[in-house]
Amino acid sequence: MRILVIEDETKVGCFIKRALDEESYAVDLCEDGAKGLQMALNTNYDLLIVDLMLPSLSGLEILKGVRQARIQTPILILTAQSQVDQRVKGLDAGADDYLTKPFAIDELLARIRALLRRGSTESPGVLQIDDLALNPATREVTRGGQRIELTLKEYALLEYLMRHTGRVLTRPMISEHVWNQDFDTFTNVIDVYVNYLRNKIDRGRSKKLIHTIRGSGYMLKAD
Amino acid sequence: MRILVIEDETKVGCFIKRALDEESYAVDLCEDGAKGLQMALNTNYDLLIVDLMLPSLSGLEILKGVRQARIQTPILILTAQSQVDQRVKGLDAGADDYLTKPFAIDELLARIRALLRRGSTESPGVLQIDDLALNPATREVTRGGQRIELTLKEYALLEYLMRHTGRVLTRPMISEHVWNQDFDTFTNVIDVYVNYLRNKIDRGRSKKLIHTIRGSGYMLKAD
DNA sequence: GTCTTCAATGACTAGAATGCGCATAGTTGT
DNA sequence: ACAACTATGCGCATTCTAGTCATTGAAGAC
């Protein structure tokens, strides 16, 4: 998960970065508003944390810039206690959440989890569909409480499927996210790996979770 | 927009209800936790506002109950200033946002706008005509709540029809969009597939949705 | 007007052709 | 030895062709 922090106060910025690093997020820190907007537009972040009070470019303008570019990335804004009207404006300009300084680091982390969770539709921490559970932190996968061993690629594929439960995932989509490359029509790797996963996850169970949508792709779904 | 407020303090509850009424939201107020959960499960609200400190059932349990029922409705929780760990738990349990009491009514309204806006952008797609619904994200088609299985071409054709409801669609137009090729007069694929669709969608129903415009083409229409 | 006729258009069906997805075996690379 | 990928053939759902049957509506007879 990649996070961009735009915050001019070096002390606060470093404090946040350290805390996020510890939670093993990939963090970029930027102390300048204009440069920060550029980065937000160019890189595909999963979350933006923006201070509303910045020197070169106000946080509000960054917000508007990002939303005008139709980028849906969740944005959390930081404000001083006094700036009530500022954060109202911020929320109306497309921010998803705010935090008033000074804040407890636990609270920041909780809100980040909430925002990241919202983007995809899974539960906090472990992903769960029916009796199948995947814990991204430990890379542990279980079904019905029973441990399932997966290879790297199998795991990556399953995580992608679980993060988009109930949606049809086309081969190009899967290829892009799991193999990060353009889709080559003349290979059937995806089919093969779906087959591997089926053997380990659905084989012998009455309730199948991996469904094929003929002509389109695959879908993970409980019923 | 329909909002459910679960708040035991009559004064606060009425205060919120009045403010939301003024913004012309449809507001239900409930002072009991257990009853509130029932209402949340039975009615399709656009937003829930839940006080964490409730008598019969804690707000946290309501949260969990709603999320366990796989209801994705955005939830905003209300907490006292002191309960930092409570709201962390709340966010982790699936709440989308929180507000500490006492709060400015403007701020509540801003957060509600933010939450409602988010919901609408997440599910842009469900196409609906009469009791026929098509969800492009999941490729799910239902009529009167009943699931209908379609093949790829059938689905593509129906999606095209639904995206142009009430307009006459000629065979060349359909061919171009669904078969992406120039129209070949010497084939009757389109007629055949319209027939397939009719069997699955209109057959046995009093209200027909697929109409043929003799000499021109076809049209999807409710009446 | 109203019937009849008839050609054009669309509805429907059976079955042939296609090509998708599955499985498994084989190959490469670490 | 194991993971990652390629190659291949088979079964079958899907797609399409081709043919027959039904419906429509306009022209002509009365």
What would you note in describing this structure?
Chain A has 223 residues and is of the alpha/beta class. Helices cover 40% and strands 22% of the residues of chain A. In chain A, a hairpin with a 2-residue loop joins β6 (127-129) and β7. In chain A, α2 (33-42) runs parallel beside α3 (59-68) and α6 (152-163) crosses α8. Chain A is elongated and about 60 Å long. The first copy, chain A, starts with a strand and ends with a strand. Residues 120-124 of chain A have low confidence and may be disordered. Chain A binds chain B through residues 72, 84, 87-88, 91-92, 95-97, 104, 106-107, 110-111, 113-114, 117-118, 121, 123-124, 166-168, 213-216, 219, and chain B through 67, 72, 84-85, 87-88, 91-97, 104, 106-107, 110-111, 113-114, 118, 121, 137-139, 151-152. The first copy, chain A, binds a DNA duplex (30 and 30 nucleotides) through α6 and α8.
SSE topology sketch:
The structure is a homodimer of 223-residue chains.
Chain A: E1 2-6, H1 10-22, E2 26-30, H2 33-42, E3 47-51, H3 59-68, E4 75-80, H4 84-92, E5 97-101, H5 105-119, E6 127-129, E7 132-135, E8 140-143, E9 146-148, H6 152-163, E10 169-170, H7 171-178, H8 189-201, E11 210-213, E12 217-220
Parallel strand pairs in A: 1-2, 1-3, 3-4, 4-5
Antiparallel strand pairs in A: 6-7, 7-8, 8-9, 10-12, 11-12
Helix pairs in contact in A: 2-3, 6-8
The first copy, chain A, binds a DNA duplex (30 and 30 nucleotides) through helix 6 and helix 8.
